[in-house]
Structure to design on (564 residues):
């Protein structure tokens, strides 16, 4: 491996992505355009961005480790995300779009009250800050270990890069770079897969050398109970996570919101197979990895089969997948702070210009907080496990009630807080207190079922009680009136605002097309420089160039008009 060539590849692609983000600096004129793309983002752009926002380098490290140890079950586990997205597309995504709200937090305030919103905002921001701060650490460690750079400077530089294009360009900058990241990562995976099969001696030899049960759908501790529980969890997570809700609300209508979720589902049906085969193949090449060393299986197969330059491309794809997850959360947390805390509570009369200043400043401050947490990880053992536990504890109690409120006329703000607090308390007891006091610990499936099942049971019980009491939430009636008023306001949008939104989306699609075409060119150059596998790289570059035609043609279909 040549660190110099790989470093150049990382810097060139990273600089290109940063430049793409910077060209959107002047496109955000207000909160709707900055955080929701004028609510007219093309569904295929939103779907790809949602897909890239969902995973990180941890996908290759954690699930890659499971693929190395247990085989196909790592793919089965990730297919639960496909099922969660299908359910979300059928029911939840269009419901979120129909609310007319800019953020999930805004919906919670209107439907369940400001006290519920306040509680949820602080929990969401805290959990997001810790979880996304820790996902920055493994990719910085990956780059540092692979290229021989110090860990701390690597973490800081990668983190600052992540913040820069999110704070400057807003949602369109995030989505366009998400698409680039998807293309680069997919190109890298498509390159490594045939090379891995070659290293293993071909498909038939890989199947022959694989251990017994390696291709079973279920294996080890990942039982049918765990898969069912994980599927239920992902219905709530993909259907209710505030980051993903933003993708459903930023498209033009409910039909497009469905398509966003369906595209995500389709990609998660295919992608896990492409991602997990390389570490599975590596098990037949080097079966000696044990313990935490199995987490390096993906990197080891990359180092074994990729020539200089292409390893840099793979590392860039892994970093971009992490930054896509982190910067989308960064954009949403900033949206929540600006729209629901600053505008909603601190300065309701703030001008669009002032709100944009707060939006960009909050993106920087929250992003710097993520970097600080990432830097703490090496010095605070187990922080990653703590944050994962925090996610498991808070996921059901925080995600389930707002989803329930999308369809329930009877759920009140008071009942929501009671259900949330009781669920959090029970989860804390089973996750932390009982293991500490009496050495009682739930297995993976039981932990997931408790985390999601408890709030679900409490919500059903509350609905039954309210039904037999003929109770109708006053907050539901208020929300219904606000929803009708908001529809009337949207019907009377100024011609200038409509034009600005159309111009932003036309510009975003053109930049997407250019970025894809230029990425194809960079891959061709990389193939010429490395000399090896030019045919493979050339074929992938040609495919990317063809894909660039899609957003270009979509941009040409956007026509500015006058209502006079």
């Amino acid at each position: 491996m040549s660190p110099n060539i790989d470093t150049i590849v990382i810097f060139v692609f990273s600089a290109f992505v940063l430049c793409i983000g910077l060209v959107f600096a002047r496109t955000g004129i207000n909160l709707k355009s900055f955080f929701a793309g004028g609510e007219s983002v093309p569904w295929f752009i939103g779907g790809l961005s949602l897909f890239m926002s969902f995973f990180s380098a941890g996908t290759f490290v954690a699930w890659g480790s499971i693929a190395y140890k247990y085989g196909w079950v790592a793919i089965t586990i990730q297919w639960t995300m496909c099922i969660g997205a299908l359910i979300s597309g059928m029911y939840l995504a269009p419901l979120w779009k129909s609310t007319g709200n800019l953020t999930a937090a805004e919906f919670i305030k209107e439907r369940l009250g400001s006290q519920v919103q306040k509680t949820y905002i602080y929990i969401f921001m805290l959990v997001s800050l810790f979880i996304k701060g820790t996902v920055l650490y493994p990719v910085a460690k990956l780059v540092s270990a692979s290229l021989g750079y110090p860990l701390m400077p690597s973490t800081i530089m990668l983190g600052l890069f992540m913040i820069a294009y999110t704070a400057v360009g807003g949602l369109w900058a995030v989505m366009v770079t998400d698409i680039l990241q998807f293309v680069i990562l997919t190109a890298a995976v498509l390159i490594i897969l045939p090379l891995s099969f070659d290293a293993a001696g071909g498909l038939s030899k890989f199947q022959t050398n694989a251990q017994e049960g390696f291709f079973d759908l279920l294996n080890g501790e990942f039982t049918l109970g765990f898969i069912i529980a994980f599927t239920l969890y992902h219905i709530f997570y993909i259907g209710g996570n505030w980051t993903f809700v933003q993708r459903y609300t930023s498209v033009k209508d409910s039909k497009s919101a469905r398509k966003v979720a369906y595209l995500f589902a389709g990609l998660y049906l295919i992608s896990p197979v492409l991602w997990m085969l390389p570490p599975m193949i590596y098990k037949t090449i080097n079966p000696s990895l044990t313990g935490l060393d199995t987490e390096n299986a993906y990197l080891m197969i990359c180092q074994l089969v990729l020539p200089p330059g292409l390893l840099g491309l793979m590392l860039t794809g892994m970093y971009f997948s992490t930054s896509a997850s982190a910067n989308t959360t960064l954009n949403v947390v900033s949206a929540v702070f600006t729209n629901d805390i600053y505008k909603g509570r601190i300065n309701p009369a703030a001008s669009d210009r002032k709100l944009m200043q707060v939006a960009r400043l909050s993106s920087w401050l929250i992003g710097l907080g993520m970097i600080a947490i990432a830097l703490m990880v090496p010095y605070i053992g187990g922080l990653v496990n703590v944050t994962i536990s925090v996610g498991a504890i808070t996921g059901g109690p925080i995600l389930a009630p707002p989803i329930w409120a999308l369809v329930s006329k009877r759920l009140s703000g008071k009942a929501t807080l009671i259900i949330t607090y009781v669920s959090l308390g029970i989860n804390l007891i089973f996750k932390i207190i009982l293991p500490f006091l009496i050495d009682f610990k739930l297995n993976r499936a039981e932990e997931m079922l408790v985390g999601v099942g408890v709030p679900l049971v409490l919500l059903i019980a509350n609905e039954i009680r309210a039904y037999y009491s003929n109770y109708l939430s006053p907050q539901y009636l208020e929300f219904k009136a606000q929803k009708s008023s908001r529809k009337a306001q949207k019907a009377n949008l100024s011609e200038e605002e409509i034009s600005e939104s159309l111009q932003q989306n036309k510009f975003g699609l053109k930049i997407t097309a250019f970025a894809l075409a230029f990425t194809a060119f960079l891959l061709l150059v990389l193939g010429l420089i490395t000399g090896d596998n030019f045919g493979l790289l050339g074929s992938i570059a040609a495919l990317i160039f063809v894909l660039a035609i899609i957003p270009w043609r979509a941009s040409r279909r956007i026509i500015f008009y006058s209502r006079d």
